[in-house]
Amino acid sequence: MKRTVALFLILCSGILLSQPQYTGSVEGTALDQATRSPLVGANIIVINTSLGAVTDPDGKFVIKNIPIGNYSLQFRMLGYATITKTDIIIRSQRTTTVTGELSEQTVESDQVVVTAGYFHTNDVQPVSITALSAEEIRRAPGSGGDISRVVMGLPSLAKVNDQSNSLIVRGGSPLENAFFLDGIEIQNINHFPTQGATGGPIGMVNIDLIDEVNFAAGGFSASHGDKLSSVLQMSMREGNRENFEGQLDLNVMGFGGVVEGPLDEHGSFLLSVRRSYLEYLVKMFDIGTTAAPQYGDVQGKIVYDLSPHHKLSLVFLGGDDHNNPDRTVAEENDMLFYGNQDIYQNAGGIVWRALWSSDFYSNTSLGVQTTKAQEDFFETNTGLPIVKNHSTQTAVSLRNSNRLRLSDVHSLEFGIETKQFMEKYDNAFGSFTNAVGDSSPASANNNKINASKLGAFITYIVHPFSLLTFTVGTRADYFSYNDRMTVSPRASLSLALSDVTTFNMSSGMFYQNMPLSLLSQDARNKELRDPYAVHYIAGVDHLLNEETKFTAEIYQKEYYDFPVDPSDPSLFLVDEMFYRGGLYFSHGQLSNSGKARSRGLELTLQKKLAADFYGLASVTLFRTEYQGADGLWRRRVFDNQMIVSVEGGYKPNAEWEFSARWIFAGGTPFTPLDLTRSAAEKRAVLDPARINGERYPAYHSLNVRFDKRFHSEHSNLVVYLSAWNAYNQKNVAVYFWNEKKGKQDTIYQWNLLPIFGVEYEL
């Protein structure tokens, strides 16, 4: 590894010792954050330069002939809080697009100086919100271009296993997260997705097309429902409206490219196509007995302005995944199952943004998503079929969200949404011995399901005086499959205690329907109630200086009415994907007796890139437990108890960047094997007397990354080298029963893993 890094540094420094002074441009829009109306006459300043611009009647600006490098852009306008956008990368002969959303602020004279805002604020989401810019997403060490792995460095996320990017948010399960791409909900954003949940091993979204990510770890407003833990919103950037541009990529995600350009004077297009190359490396280097997964994806956006106040966007995301390890491969690699796996995903839709007046705007989206799975798995030990999953899942959604400013004090956020599900299952489960050694007979799930969801929400936002914001809202949801309606009240408060300190709090109820792939296994499960969680969150934000913020938050989540299987009374059904390889095995009639609870403290120190350094350090202390059908409280498999995370970087100039992320996490609970019964059954049998009674060793790992940029008159090149688990820590993934050896064995998480990437812009 040392030789690789040395060669990389020598190569990069030797190619160009000095470069001519090339220039690029920045353009964008200044908007009112609450109403999305354009701000006319806003001042845009490139910090530490004499460059700047003033927005035109459409709120747009252009600043040309900026020397290449990394800049911060400041947005100023009388009556609004000043904001600063960091990590604005200026590249040779290219245009960078930036949108600034300013929040209204009452001032008494034009002599008032408002502190620059480096941090995202949101009046309907004052707690547990993190905004990440495009550059913060791109350069995150240890992410490999996967948005979920970028977010996993935040304090609200548990650390379970490197091989999965499942988001475990404040004690919740991977089932409980919502993903939105330009306002269109995407059920799963991963290759090889876990059916019925939101995780997977590899992200499907190309981060080079993402402008910003907003992640809410709890307490989100009534505008989002049907999820118990979190909402991740991804905003795609628009294509270049002036020139045609291209980019070629080679990295851990695969090889591919991006093209973009104008659609006459009214719009633009943006397209990304990628393909994996692991299968070619396996053949080229003759890497033993193994089966490389194959996957590819396509993503794009077309934007067209109907008028200055109405815009249409077409957004799409698709992928195909293939994996076919045979029995020999499974035996050589200690795999419990083998078989064929072919998955096809397509999602997208049309988004209409309408600005009806300077105080009223709306977003309306029509989305469609289809996932087709052809999976056949067999037990490695016996060769017998264990799971057949031939399913097609289609969802059509219509969502309308509105924001109306009634006055300087009062505002409303309201809307409706509907989803239509059309799902077909031709599934079969072979007879098997369950996790605690009991025999389960073979079963099948052959169903065609048509179901609807209807929802409506409203939130009232009031600023009774400049230091206080209070919101109260509710949403109502109806699910036709179980013929039930739920009502979810929510409220939040934000109080400025001083110019630099703010107290925030939030509380509410959050309902979620269970996956149809689980409920449809038994007709009696239509009688189940929807599980719900109650969030209680309070915290303080304190600015140490303009670009550095300290945050302390405490939270408590109480879960009720979770489905559990009376035949496995000690186990928690929604955690099943972790101890059964990501599959919902066969279940009969379920009950609503499951409960869970999670509580924690999160301390975070974040520094934005105002000069050369940036970073984020956090300490999290938490506990998460569940109550199964037997009424006993036990630790959940996500209960790290303590997580320490430190990440950051140094940018000495426009060409170089160095970054790192170090994470320490307490060991997660696991159920030890009953070694005697496992030997007798010749398969893993858990000890039912010690469910989640022991812990794996603590986890810790260091990821580092080096970036080097090269600029020429008409192109740009970015070369990066990253090392995951740089000091090669042996982190335990799982203790398992090795059926070939007839004894307990260990699977470790990733060893030292070098990652490289090349981005060539032309």
Give a verbal description of the structure.
With 762 residues, the protein is mostly beta strands. It has 2 domains: 2-102, Sandwich (Immunoglobulin-like), CATH 2.60.40.1120; 129-719 and 727-761, TonB-dependent receptor, beta-barrel domain (Maltoporin, Chain A), CATH 2.40.170. The chain is built from 8 helices and 43 strands. The longest helix is centred in the first third of the chain and has 14 residues, at 2-15. It is globular.
Please identify, by name, the CATH architecture of the largest domain: Beta Barrel
- Tell how many strands the DSSP assignment holds: 43
The dominant shape is globular
Residue runs with pLDDT of under 50 for 5 or more positions: 4-19, 107-114, 285-289
**Terminus-to-terminus distance:** 31 Å
Q: Major sheet: size, sense and barrel closure?
A: 22 strands, antiparallel, barrel
Core attributes:
5-stranded mixed β-sheet, 22-stranded antiparallel barrel, Maltoporin, Chain A, Immunoglobulin-like, 43 strands
Quick structural summary:
The chain has 762 residues and is mainly beta. 7% of the residues lie in helices and 54% in strands.
